Amino acid sequence: MLEDAVSHTFWIPQCSYLPAAKQLYRHILPVSSLKYRDLCRLCDTNVIPGEFHRQYQELKTDCNVRDCLPETDDEDDV
Fold first, then answer.
1. Where are the beta strands (DSSP E) in 1-78?
2. pLDDT reported for residue 73
3. Which residues of 51-61 are buried (b: 16+ CB within 10 A; e: fewer)?
4. In this predicted structure, what is the pLDDT of residue 11?
5. What's the rounded Cα separation, in Å, for the pair 7 and 67?
6. Which pLDDT value is given to residue 13?
7. Distance between alpha carbon 50 and the CA centroid of its chain, in Å?
8. Spatial contact of 61 and 32, defined as CB atoms under 8 Å apart
């Protein structure tokens, strides 16, 4: 972003007509054990800010849950 770029401030009025969010599941969906391990590692190394650690550490896990996203073709070392 250019230092001399023009910045604008917008005021967005609060909408009172939005419907309440509908609960889609009867219980909290678990994450895979491997995903949980990786998230805890990100907490331990403070990649995830401390204020969010509890939220991640309280996630339910299930070893039968598979990650929904396929592996990417991108290389991490590039």
1. 31-32, 61-62
2. 66
3. eebeeeeeeee
4. 81
5. 41
6. 77
7. 14
8. yes
